[in-house]
Amino acid sequence: MGSWSFYELAIATKSVIAEGSAKSRSYRYRLPMVIDDLLGCIPEYERVEGFTAEKLASKRYIEAAAAEGRQKLMQPAAAGGK
């Protein structure tokens, strides 16, 4: 099935908002994501008009998370052996 593109996610989100079908949730944990999928979405997200500050913040966050994840893979002992 693969990852959703930003466009597909935006359309699905718009539908949920329009229908009012989203329920508030309390998250107890975070799921791992394939960082390369997120990095691949950055250029598509950057083509969306507006949201300049949000796009920059998102890009910085994703790139920092990718760098941290790669560092932990390269130095598992420094990451507590995980």
State the main characteristics.
3 helices; mainly alpha
Plain-language structure description:
The protein has a domain at 25-79. It is globular and about 50 Å long. The protein is mainly alpha-helical. It is 60% helix and 0% strand.
User: Mind describing the biggest β-sheet?
Assistant: none
**Low-confidence stretches at least 5 residues in length (pLDDT < 50)?**
none
The number of helical elements comes to: 3
Q: Report the structural category.
A: mainly alpha
Shape: globular
Strand content: under 5%
Short structural summary:
Helix 2 packs antiparallel against helix 3. This protein has 82 residues and is an all-alpha fold. The protein has helices spanning 6-19, 35-46, 52-74.
Write the layout of secondary structure elements.
Layout: H1 6-19, H2 35-46, H3 52-74
